[in-house]
Amino acid sequence: MIEYPQFFDLICRRYSCRRYDNASVSREMLMAIMETARYAQSACNKQPWKFLVIDEPELKEVVYKSYDRDWIRDAGAFVVALGNKNEAWSRGYDGRNSMDIDIAIACENICLATATLGLGACWIGNFDIVPLKEGLSIPEEWEPVAIISIGYPKDPHEQPEKKRKNIDEVVKWGKF
């Protein structure tokens, strides 16, 4: 079996953190994380994204209005990932727009970077875009795609068990 222990360990350590210790995350760390988003691949290198880093209390309130869960109030910062369908590549055969995929790749880089730095992150997709668009002055052509909470895990050694399907259930060789 081929081994790549550092990368595999990182993938296994990353989880959706929903318990933070309420400490702030330095802007230096946040910028290091955001560099990984900037280097994410995108279809035809269109990079149809912008990322709003939210670490100020009054702007965190905007995030709380869009996703009303108690646990997010202890996160040190948030990244609001925005996409622009007009800037994304679209497949010629059927017009399928790549914006969501491109944003997802960048967001996964963010989540992996937080795990590398000993931070926790949770990728949030179930939120109300209206408070974000209004409260963060997001132009009409930019769509909030994801919110990522970032912070120091309340108990960094307490990680939930990963429940995954067996490899034979998700990997097929050749035809379906």
Structure description:
By secondary structure, the protein is α+β, with helices and mostly antiparallel strands. The chain has one domain (15-151): NADH Oxidase. Helices cover 34% and strands 15% of the residues. The chain contains six helices and four strands, in the order H-H-E-H-E-H-E-H-E-H. A four-stranded antiparallel sheet has the order 1-2-4-3, with helices on both faces. Helix 3 packs antiparallel against helix 5. The relative contact order is 0.22. The mean pLDDT is 96.
CATH topological fold name: NADH Oxidase
Q: How big a fraction of the residues is strand?
A: 15-25%
Q: Share of helix among residues?
A: 25-40%
Low-confidence stretches: none
CATH architecture: 3-Layer(aba) Sandwich
Strand/helix succession: HHEHEHEHEH
Protein topology:
Elements: H1 5-13, H2 27-38, E1 49-54, H3 57-66, E2 77-83, H4 99-116, E3 120-124, H5 129-135, E4 143-151, H6 167-170
Helix pairs in contact: 2-4, 3-5
Q: What would a concise description of this structure say?
A:
This protein has about 180 residues and is of the alpha+beta class. The protein has a single domain (about 15-150), classed as NADH Oxidase (3-Layer(aba) Sandwich).
Task: Kindly list the characteristics that best describe this protein.
alpha+beta, 176 residues, 6 helices, 15% strand, 4-stranded antiparallel β-sheet, NADH Oxidase, globular
